[in-house]
Amino acid sequence: MIDNASFAEQARSEKYTGVPYSKLDCQAFVEEVLKDAGARKADGTVYNWKGSNSMWRNALSWKGTISECLKKFGCIPLGAWLFIVSQDGGEKEKGYNDSEGNAKHVAIYCKPGETPVRDSTRSNTRNGVGYRSLNAFTHVGLAFMIDYKNTLVPEPVESLVIDKTAALEALEKVRQYIERG
């Protein structure tokens, strides 16, 4: 298992910059970053899925929408996989008879900022590996072979309360309001 910060750092490597989509598509990019970061199956072989739909269904210990991820973890963890998932029936065409949607693209959340996502795409503006904004993506997945523990440790409640006196006063006002009915 590799840690998420190392995985995200590997995804930012200049080694991948400009590699054309024909040589490294979105799935292959994520698999190559995993391999280069040292992630291996129990038998020592590298991971190899049958596309982003296969990754969406078989490589994740947790998955949900971006808003579900933010609600559950308070952030999108470094090294999380981002997906474009639609409920368009496309998964059935690809042999998936479930209701998990059609994962059309996969990328890696690898740095905070304006363009936090690294992926490989073929578009009007880019052909190959580069950065893009988060707004194109719909879902987040936490890969089972990546350790996100350091990112997902919640802060102690005490650190979230800036002024305990003010918080207690507010709670007292709420209690009094409830008692008045």
Could you explain how this protein is built, in words?
With 181 residues, this protein is α+β, with helices and mostly antiparallel strands. The protein has one domain. Helix content is 35%, strand content 23%. The chain has eight helices and eight strands; from the N terminus they run βαααβαβαβββββααα. About 6% of the residues have low confidence.
Radius of gyration: 20 Å
Strand content: 15-25%
Global geometry: elongated
**Average pLDDT:** 86
Biggest β-sheet: strands ordered side by side in the sheet: 2-7-3-4-5-6
User: How many DSSP H or I helices?
Assistant: 8
Report the uncertain regions: 153-162
Q: Please count the beta strands (DSSP E, at least 2 residues each).
A: 8
Report how far apart the termini are: 55 Å
- What does the largest sheet look like? 6 strands, antiparallel
**Which structural category fits the helices and strands?**
alpha+beta
The total number of structural domains is 1
**Secondary-structure element series:** EHHHEHEHEEEEEHHH
Helix content: 25-40%
Care to give the gist of this entry?
The protein has 181 residues and is α+β, with helices and mostly antiparallel strands. It has 8 helices and 8 strands; from the N terminus they run βαααβαβαβββββααα.
Secondary-structure map:
Elements: E1 2-3, H1 4-11, H2 26-37, H3 52-58, E2 60-65, H4 66-73, E3 81-86, H5 90-93, E4 102-109, E5 117-122, E6 127-132, E7 139-143, E8 146-147, H6 149-152, H7 157-160, H8 164-180
Parallel strand pairs: 1-8
Antiparallel strand pairs: 2-7, 3-4, 3-7, 4-5, 5-6
Helix pairs in contact: 1-2
